[in-house]
Structure formats: structure tokens, C-alpha cells
Please model this.
Amino acid sequence: MNRKKRILLKMNIVSLFFIALSFVSITLAWFAYSGLAKVETDVNVKAWYIEFQKDNSATSNDIIISLDDIYPGMEPSSEKIDIKNFGDSDAMVTYQITSARILDEEISVSDEDMVSLIDRLSHDYPFHINVGLSSSLAVREVGSSELNVSVSWPMDSDNDEADSQWGVAAFKFKKQEEEKKAADPSYQIRSPLRITINMRAEQFTDDVNSLDPKYNLGNTLLFDPVNNVRCSKISTTCLKMYVIDTANKVGDKTVTLMPDLYKAYGPSRYDNRLTTLNNAVANWQVPTDELSVEHLLRIISSDVVKSTLSREKLSDSIIGSMHLDERVYEEIDKAKDGKGYFTFDNTRNKMLVRNGCYWLKNEYSSTSGFAVQKYNQIKTEILGLDKMSSCNVVPIISVDKKVLEQ
Model:
């Protein structure tokens, strides 16, 4: 074989070697990439399975409130949607009113702040349209929440003029709709009331404005207020605490806690309650305050079926939306002016229920103070008790989240 042929053969063998090596490299790279892709899939992909249920059957995430008739003294109408989280991620649950019509009044939802709209529907008419969530958080795999809607029109709403005005308007609206149907059989009679509510369940995001899942209303933890530390076993200083903030956010620096009510402080007469309270928390190294009616109304108002205000000579009314401070104060004044009291469901608000009574921060009248007293196994009352009565006192504390997360 001459020299030229030997050189060509050598070059071909070398080329084949590099070609083979490149195929091996590409194959190895592909396997390496495939392996990483598999790992990424295993780590990052989570099941997202939220189901909205009505009467244990899956339903749409839109609720339409449409009543054939509304009138003073009507039986309250209510609807409940269960929100189940079967997935692997915590879900934040919210709702939004997407359209609203009352008789011929089309309410421009886009022009109203949602909190103001919810407040308006709950309080600004003699009839009350209330929407409430039992919890804004449905934790992964086992978590749930429920959205309740109620419509009511008390026979005696403490505003005879409004009752009469809207009662006549509702009657005329119904009559006009029937006349339109008689003139045109294809006409679809409108209901006097139509509200559309959209429910949403979104994956939790660690944003400063997001609700903090660690401090959701009713969550429990053990805390030692004497040493200002989180603790792990109940003792004379390590207490079971409940979160009583209704909307604690990730960006909030502190959280408000209430000791378990079966840890008794007192008893005391109303005028001596502060002395009793101060003695009980003398060694506590955290800011303290008294439990108040304002705290409780914000907590129990999410129940838009069973949390009510009762007053002398007036019909019971559902408390409704308490998102705005002025509404809270207005509701308290209604109770005091009407010699009234609030009631709430024991099962729904277990952390607020105890045998006996406990004082609240607010004065009811010159001779009585606001107190909480269990009425029976079904309900508890927030009412005015004679200041000479003996009730326990309830401290609440404000704790720095950094302390809780150490």
C-alpha cells in the first residue's frame, strides 16, 4: 500500500472514531437531560384539586341568588357551598360579586369597592343580602371552607318607612313583570333580586398582602407570655392560645392571641375587672389588652345564618358584614339602644364558648357591662349583665411573629 493510501485510511479511522465519540457524547447528554427533567417533574409538579360542592355533589364555582318574591317577614333563605381541597397545596379561598340587580336597579359592580358593595347589600336595604366564608384558607389534602349566602327581610326592621317604600316597590315590580308576560308569552319574567357570586380558590403565594396561613383565624399554638417564647408543653406559664385576627397577612408584624377560655382569670365584678386582669398578667412580657365586642362581632359575623342581633319589640336580624369599623360600632349601638343582645352558634365558634360568663371591654349602660354567657348547648349570647355580677376576665396579647418563628 502506497504512502498516500495509508494516510487516507488513517484519516478515515480517526474520523470514524470522533464521529462515534460524538454519538456517545450526544447520547450521554440526552440521558443526563432526561434524568434532570424527571427529577424536576417529581419535585415541582403538584396535584391541584379543589372541588365546590352543594349537597355533597360537585357544582359550579358561580352562585346565582334569584328569588321569586321578597317581602317583610319572609322566611330567611340561605344557600351553602362546601369548598374541598384534595390537592397538595394550600388554597386561599375568596369570592367576588360579579353582578347585582335589585328590582330595576342595576348595580355597577365595577364602580364599587368590593368591601363597600358587600357592606351595602348587607345593611343599606330593609332586606339583607349576606355572604360569608367560614375560612379564607383550605389547607392541603384535608382542608375545607364553606361559603354561605342568606337573604332575609325582618318583619320589623326598625325602619317602617323603608319597609313600606321597598315593599310597595317590590309589589309593583312583580305586577309589571306579570303584565309583560301577559302581553308577550315569550317574555321571561325577571326575579326581583338577582346577585351573581364567583368563588375562587388560588394557590397560596408568599406575598405580603396574602393571608398568612400560619395565623388563620382559630389556629392554635402554645405560647409562654411570661417568658415571651413559643413553648411545647402546657404548664402554668405555657398556655394554649387561639388566633383571633380575622385577616392576618404575611406582611403583618404581629398576631393577636387569646388564651383558651378554660384557663380562668377571675371572677370579678365589672368595675374591678381591670384590677383582676392586671394582676393576672403582671408577669407577662407581651403587650396585653381586653377582649372586646368589636373582636367578637368581626369573628362571628362570617356566619350569615345563625349570628343574630335580638332587640326588644323588633324582629331578630342577621348581623351580616362587619368588614368596616363604622358598621361594627353601629351594630353595638343598635344593641345598646334597643336593649338587645347578640347570639352565635356554639359549634361554629367553639373557641368563644365556656360555661359561666366573662366580661368584655365595653360598657353596656351605666349599670351593666357587656359580657359573654353560654345560653344553652346550641348558642351563646353577648349581652348586658349587671355590673355587680361575677364573671371571668379575658386578656388578649399581641405577639411579634419573629418570636413565634424562632
User: Anything to note?
Assistant: The chain has seven helices and 22 strands. The first strand starts at residue 50 and ends at 54. Residues 3-46 have pLDDT under 50 and may be disordered. The longest helix spans residues 3-44.
